[in-house]
Amino acid sequence: MVATAPVIGILSIPPLLLLLFRKSDNKHTTITTKPMTTTTTASNDWPVHMIVVGGSSGIGLSIAQECARNGTTAKVTILARNQDKLNQAKADIEETAKTASNSSVQVQAVSVSVTDYTAVEKIAHQLLGNNDKEKQPTKERVILFNCAGIPYTSEFETIPIDVYTKLVETNQLGAMYVTRAFLPHMNQGCIVFCSSATGQLGVYGYTVYSSTKFALRGFAETLHAELMRSKPGVSVQIAFPVDTATPGYEVETKMMPAITKVLNANAGLSQPEDIAKIMDGC
User: Fold this and answer.
1) Is residue 31 included in any domain, yes or no?
2) Which end of the chain is more exposed for a tag (fewer CB within 10 A), N or C?
3) What CATH number is given to the structural domain containing 50?
4) Which among 130, 164, 129, 169 is positioned nearest to 149, based on CA atoms?
5) Is 189 left (phi over 0), alpha (psi -120 to 50) or beta?
């Protein structure tokens, strides 16, 4: 188990990201300042394909840019709902790769809603499936980032019921749908979940949002246990970033209760680029 204390400590150090993941030796490791690198030790002849769900803005976009910059990635695919934002993000990622002299990386942008499992499953097959064998794993090392999410802050009794459904469908079920759709095509790689510091510690004003982020931890840890047996080449990672300067956070602050604003002011604000440098691979 990971104690609560490190989470409290991390809230007061904005540049750091609490990153929890399990290795094949079944031990927990906490990463703070040391960036991770993308490797292909399990199958070093397979190209690396980074798929970032929620990759049109915020942490997801920064991760995609970092992947395009690092020189070890053959493909970067971003998924999100808004096609206009995807087009702009794709152009930004391509420019990042060009600036880093990594223009050989292939960048794709695909519009899909994570709440539509049938659509997500179709996209997964289009990106990774073989023509004649739908469930045959791809000959790529796939790093799947689940970064799609909706923020919401308000006291529990003031939150409309339909918001409960919207947050659960996007933040929790969306990650499960994506994972279920892509996993049959993966033989080597990593599945990364972007939770939140509020997925480790309940914070005033985050009742519904926090619940969806806590759920990701339970899902990730249980999935890890199952994949150790069924797909040992696929690891699972979950990150718990603190408040980060993203478009979603800007929306969040507009509805934030006064008490929550005081708590967040003491915690500081991270930059998505700093988070991405730690989350850019497994």
Assistant:
1) no
2) N
3) 3.40.50.720
4) 169
5) left
Identify whether 36 is part of a domain: no
% of the chain with per-residue pLDDT over 90? 63
From 7, 2, 6, select the one nearest 197 (Cα to Cα): 7
Q: Which residues are catalytic?
A: 195, 209, 213
More confident residue, 196 or 21: 196
166 within a domain of the structure (yes/no): yes
Q: What local confidence, expressed as pLDDT, does residue 244 receive?
A: 87
Tokens of 22: 């399990």
Contact of 22 with 236, CB cutoff 8 Å: yes
Q: Which pLDDT score, from 0 to 100, does residue 205 have?
A: 95
Amino acid of residue 215: A
Strands (E), 131-249: 141-146, 188-194, 234-240
Q: Going by C-beta distance under 8 Å and a sequence separation of 6 or more, which residues neighbour residue 151?
A: 209, 248, 249, 251, 252
User: Does the pLDDT of residue 156 top 50, yes or no?
Assistant: yes
Calculated CA dihedral for residues 205, 210, 211, 212, nearest 10 degrees? 130
Give me the residue label for tokens 């030796």.
25
Strand partners, 237: 21, 192
In a domain, 262, yes or no: yes
Angle between helices 272-279 and 58-69 (to 10 degrees): 50
* Residue range 151-156: mean pLDDT, rounded: 94
pLDDT of residue 44: 61
pLDDT of 5: 33
* Average of per-residue pLDDT values in the chain: 83
Q: Residue 17: is its pLDDT beyond 60? A: no
